[in-house]
Amino acid sequence: MDLYAAIDIHEDRAVRLRRGRFDQQTVYASDPLDAARAWVDAGARRLHVVDLDGARDGRTAALGHLQRIATRLGVPVQYGGGLRTLESLSAALEAGAARVVLGTAAHRDPELLDAALERHRDRLAVAVDVRGGRLATHAWTETTELDGPEAVERLRGRGVQAVIYTDAERDGTLEGPDLEHVSAVAGAARGGRLVYSGGVGRLEDLERLSALGARALDGVIVGKALYEGRFTVAEAQHALDAGV
To answer: pLDDT in tens for each of the 244 residues of the chain?
Structure first.
C-alpha cells in the first residue's frame, strides 16, 4: 500500500485545512515546492497535490506549482482541484501530473466523465469526498443525497478504475479514520483501486488501515500528521507495509 504525502496549495502556499474549512487553516510553507521537497527528501515515493483555490472556484490556479514539483523532484504526482474540463485535465497531465483527479465535475457532468475516461482512463481518478455521510462537491461546500459507498459503486459502474475517498469531517483532525466505513467503501470499490484520506494521526491508524485486508485499498494520503511530526515518512510507509 502506498503512502501519498499531501501538499495542499492555497494562495501559493502549502497549507492544511481543518475539515476543509478555509477559515481553519495552518500555513506550513511559503512555497509548495519546499514542502514537497521535504517529503521527497524524507523518502516519499508519491505526492498528492491539491489546488484548493481551484477546487473552490472551479478553475485551475496551481499548474505552475505542479510543473515545478513534478519536474524538479522526479516522483509521481497525483493532482486535483478545479479540473472540470477536458482541457484542464490535459493541461495538468502536460504539466507533469502522473494521475489527475476529477472531482465535482465527475458527479455533475456524466458526459465529461465519459469523455475523460475515454481519453485518460489509466491516468484518471475520481474524488469521492464525504461530509456528514453524504457526497460533498464544490470544495466540500455542497452535499448530495448519495452516501459514500453508493457514490463509489456508481463510479465503478461507469468504468472508473481509481477513486480518491476523503472523509471531510475527519480531514485535518488527526482523530483517526472510521475503519468500518472505510471497509464499506473499499468493498464498493471492488475490482478497482481506492486511495483513502482523512484523519490519520497515528502510526496505528495506518497499521489498522493496512490490516483491513481490503483488496481495493491501495493507498493512503497523509498530510497534517507528517507536518506536525507525529511520525516520519519512513515510519508511515513501514506501517502501511506491516499489514501486507
So the answer is: 999 999 999 999 999 888 767 777 889 999 999 999 999 999 999 999 999 998 888 888 899 999 999 999 999 999 999 899 999 999 999 999 999 999 888 988 999 999 999 999 999 999 999 988 888 876 666 777 789 999 999 999 999 999 999 998 898 899 999 999 999 999 999 899 999 999 999 999 999 999 997 788 999 999 999 999 999 999 999 999 976 5
Domain residue spans of the chain: 2-242
- Say what the pTM is: 0.93
Residue 92: all three cell numbers together: 495538468
Q: Which homologous superfamily does the CATH classification assign to the domain defined by 2-242?
A: Aldolase class I (3.20.20.70)
**d(Cα 148, Cα 189) in Å, to the nearest integer?**
10
Which residues are marked as active site? 8, 129
Q: For residue 157, how many C-alpha atoms fall within 13 Å in the half-sphere facing its CB?
A: 8
Residues 73/76/78/83 CA torsion (nearest 10 deg)? 80
Query: Residue 19 corresponds to which cell in the numbers above?
Result: 475539515
Residues sharing a CB contact under 8 Å with residue 232, sequence separation 6 or more, in sequence order: 42, 43, 226
CA-CA distances (angstroms) from residue 220 to 43, 119, 141, 182, 241?
A: 15, 26, 23, 11, 12
